[in-house]
Amino acid sequence: MTHATGLKYLKNGCLPLMWCPGCGHGITLGNMLRAFEELDFTNENTVVVTGIGCWGKSDDYLVTNALHTTHGRALAFATGVKAYNPKLNVVVLMGDGDGVTIGGNHFIHAARRNIDLTAIIVNNYNYGMTGGQASATTPSDSRTSTTVYGNPERELDVCALAEAAGANYVARGTVYHGWDLKNLMKEGLSRKGFSLIEVVSPCPTHFGRNNNMKVAVKMLNWLKEKGVTKEKYAQLTDPQKDGYFVIGKLVDKDAPDFNTRYEEIRARAMGS
Ligand SMILES: Cc1ncc(C[n+]2csc(CCOP(=O)(O)OP(=O)(O)O)c2C)c(N)n1
Ligand code: SF4
């Protein structure tokens, strides 16, 4: 981020941040703040809601209004904020563990309600903060501290889940593709209804170390190679698809959001 963006959004004296060298969370935060600046999201009109985890620490560094909530429940708190004051921009930051593992139920229902929030889920394929345990997005066969010989479970596709549950906007980016990521965030933050931006990101300390990517740059090269456009992905044959994932915009709809529906029903009940 530029010096000016940093000064505008980061708390004085917050550096150095707690994240390990090579962690993708700083790049994600920088892109989010660039999107905030371009959209004029300010301390007056924006609330950042986080859960618990390395990514969930982000609100500690920001001058925006923030709510640091419990692990897995950030979307429930955010729903309350938005339902109470629909004028606020509510942005919810969660890791894959927070957002779709322990918090899977809240995630499904926030998307189903199509409540006007933007969820930015950083998917580093494991629980970073607590020592690299497997989460619901850990790829099958991958090694983590709780699947030392390989993960016997299948991984969850966060974007497909959001789409199936009814989200208006769904996109996936990576920290390698920073410019595109900022633009996807900007679009998601501008849309009404539930928006999900999944950010595939390196955790070299745990996921990388356990999966032959000890050096951060190896993880970035992995994102560069495996994150492909819809068109490129469609050209791959089935066995080739293994490990590749689509990046870019996946869903963009305009179904009425929760607050709009609520106001319609309230007006009907009041006889107006
Ligand atoms: C109810 C509850 N269960 C478990 C924990 C312990 N815990 C804190 S952070 C965390 C993992 C966070 O992983 P993730 O959400 O993927 O974010 P990351 O640290 O990878 O950024 C866990 C299990 C907790 N704080 N509260
Ligand atoms: S443990 Fe992983 S997710 Fe947490 S700060 Fe370190 S690299 Fe980032």
TrEMBL record:
- In its UniProt record, which GO terms are filed under biological process? cellular respiration
Task: Decide whether keyword Oxidoreductase is in the record.
Answer: yes
> Known Pfam families for this protein?
TPP_enzyme_C
| Start and end residues of each Thiamine pyrophosphate enzyme TPP-binding domain | 59-199
Q: Which UniProt keywords apply?
A: Oxidoreductase
SUPFAM superfamilies hit by this protein:
Thiamin diphosphate-binding fold (THDP-binding)
One GO MF term on file is: thiamine pyrophosphate binding
Per its record, how is this protein called by name? 2-oxoglutarate ferredoxin oxidoreductase subunit beta
What is the species listed in this Swiss-Prot or TrEMBL entry? Desulfotruncus arcticus DSM 17038
